[in-house]
Design a protein that fits this description.
The protein is of the alpha/beta class and 184 residues long. It has seven helices and five strands. The protein has helices at residues 53-59, 63-69, 73-86, 100-115, 129-137, 146-152, 164-183, and strands at 6-15, 25-32, 35-43, 92-97, 127-128. It has a five-stranded mixed β-sheet with strand order 3-2-1-4-5, with helices on both faces. Helix 3 crosses helix 4 (100-115) and helix 5 runs parallel beside helix 7 (164-183).
Length: 184
């Protein structure tokens, strides 16, 4: 019996501040690298009154609308965990982000805080695009910004919109191309 393949789950978060807890994750997007048909998106009700206006402005999300209409974090994170766990029928989900430290901090904190565990494992660890690119190409950190990676891979027409669902799909496409570049 052959083991199921790894599925690199590109994750993107939009938030209204620099850390979870005092600030809120406002949206969460996920997409599987190499499988554009496998995506997830949710918005979340803010968990505190604190926010950094510049951080909120990046997403373009209407915080008042989220307070009225978005699902409670426990409901949103349960749906996200169900989606990740549903992938186990076809593969082994591996967290992927750019940067993994920032997105991973929010995602892991929210899963543990609202569900008691993360479907990505107890440490919340995963693959960071910039670190992967350094290892695959021998480039220095300064040469690993996502825009530079996209240019190196010829993905200049793939936008970064600050919509968590669209940016997760962007990251999935970039990582899939980076994997093919490394293997090619």
């Amino acid at each position: 019996m052959t083991a199921l393949p790894e599925l690199f789950v590109a994750v993107d978060v939009e938030a209204d501040g620099p850390i979870p807890g005092p600030y809120s994750m406002l949206s969460l997007g996920m997409a599987v690298a190499g499988r554009p048909d496998l995506t997830f998106y949710t918005e979340l009700r803010p968990i505190s009154d604190d926010l950094v206006p510049a951080a909120l402005a990046v997403s373009g999300l209407d915080r008042d609308r989220l307070l009225r209409e978005a699902p409670e974090p426990a409901i949103a994170m349960k749906a996200a965990a169900s989606w990740v766990n549903g992938l186990r029928r076809i593969g082994r989900p591996v967290f992927l982000a750019a940067p993994a430290v920032w997105d991973g901090m929010f995602v892991h904190w929210y899963f543990v805080r609202f569900l008691g565990h993360s479907p990505f494992g107890s440490t919340g660890s995963g693959v960071d695009l910039r670190s992967f690119w350094m290892g695959a190409t021998g480039s220095e950190w300064v040469e690993t910004r996502k825009g530079k990676i996209k240019n190196a891979l010829g993905l200049t027409d793939v936008p970064h919109t600050h919509h968590a669902g669209e940016d997760a799909a962007e990251l999935a496409q970039v990582f899939d191309a980076a994997m093919r570049h490394r293997n090619g």
